[in-house]
């Protein structure tokens, strides 16, 4: 292993197992790993939450990649799923609840940040398991990639300023993008959607793009910050995880690979694997965190 518990810059990882609900009789396991990498500070946060909402089991996985500081990403970890799961239409109109909860969480955060001099922001890339449904909601350039029928299938599209539809949206709102090492909104920010970033409102928005899939067609998910995706392709990431049955071990392997390929960013990965119920003798619920 490249990383050990004696490393002054350790990988934080853990995982768990839970049942699926709905007509598919199965279970899922998940693992997460997070590493400061070559950055001076850690601005990535993640959330793995399994709870019951209105009698239904709901699993929420999120990766939040902060910029300009860690305040926004940490706020999202602590509040985004809480706000979403308490939305009155969460079960009956989940997509609308996601959009409204993301928008309101951004508003709440900006209101709390009034008076703070430093302007920070964060991406939010989330996967929600609800019954037989998988809903991916993305704001920013972290990414969700699924393995379906053995192939890598992106379930989110990065929000970059040079995406033609994003550029049009920004310019229509009165903003602009320019090249400064990469394409940036107002010459500042290299993502076109994010939470926070009050100085770049209304050009940088926290409105998610949502994609829905049936869980039945998905072998596993990779949810990761761009510290992975900047150096590891979707196809390569899926190939790495395919050969590793333990989701936590897989998430750590992705981080090792990204670091070995020269990633200069914080790196956070969550892997969610779907299994046949016959492969587990009894329900197990774990919450293992280790360094």
UniProtKB/TrEMBL annotation:
GO biological process, one term: regulation of intracellular signal transduction
GO MF entries: metal ion binding; protein serine/threonine phosphatase activity
Boundaries of every PPM-type phosphatase domain copy: 29-274
Cofactor: Mn(2+); Mg(2+)
Source organism superkingdom: Eukaryota
InterPro entries named in the record: PP2C, PP2C_BS, PPM-type-like_dom_sf, PPM-type_phosphatase-like_dom
Enzyme Commission identifier(s): 3.1.3.16
Reactions catalysed, as given in the entry: O-phospho-L-seryl-[protein] + H2O = L-seryl-[protein] + phosphate; O-phospho-L-threonyl-[protein] + H2O = L-threonyl-[protein] + phosphate
Keywords annotated in UniProt: Hydrolase, Magnesium, Manganese, Metal-binding, Protein phosphatase
Family to which the UniProt record says this protein belongs: Belongs to the PP2C family.
Protein name: protein-serine/threonine phosphatase
Gene symbol of the encoding locus: LOC104599563
């Amino acid at each position: 292993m490249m990383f050990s518990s004696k490393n002054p810059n350790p990988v934080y990882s853990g995982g768990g197992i839970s049942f699926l609900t709905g007509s598919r009789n199965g279970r899922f396991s998940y693992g997460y790993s997070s590493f400061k990498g070559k950055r001076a500070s850690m601005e990535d946060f993640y959330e793995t939450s399994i709870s019951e909402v209105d009698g239904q089991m709901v699993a929420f996985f999120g990766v939040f990649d902060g910029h300009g500081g860690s305040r926004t990403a940490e706020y999202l970890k602590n509040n985004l799923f809480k706000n979403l799961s308490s939305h009155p239409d969460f079960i009956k109109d989940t997509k609308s609840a996601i959009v409204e909860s993301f928008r309101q969480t951004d508003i709440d955060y900006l209101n709390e940040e009034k008076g703070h001099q430093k302007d920070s922001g964060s991406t939010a890339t989330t996967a929600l398991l609800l019954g037989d449904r998988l809903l991916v909601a993305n704001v920013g350039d972290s990414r969700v990639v699924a393995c379906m029928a053995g192939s890598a299938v992106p379930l989110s599209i990065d929000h970059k300023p040079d995406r033609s539809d994003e550029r049009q949206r920004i310019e229509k709102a009165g903003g602009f993008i320019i090249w400064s090492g990469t394409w940036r909104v107002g010459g500042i920010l290299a993502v076109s959607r994010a939470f926070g970033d009050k100085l770049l409102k209304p050009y940088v928005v926290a409105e998610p793009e949502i994609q829905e899939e049936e869980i039945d067609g998905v072998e596993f998910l990779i949810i990761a910050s761009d510290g992975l995706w900047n150096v590891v392709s979707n196809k390569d990431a899926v190939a790495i995880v395919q050969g590793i049955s333990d989701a936590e071990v897989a998430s750590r392997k992705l981080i090792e690979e990204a670091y070995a390929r020269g990633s200069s960013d914080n790196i956070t990965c969550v892997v969610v694997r779907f299994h046949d119920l016959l492969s587990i003798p009894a329900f197990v619920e774990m919450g293992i965190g280790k360094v």
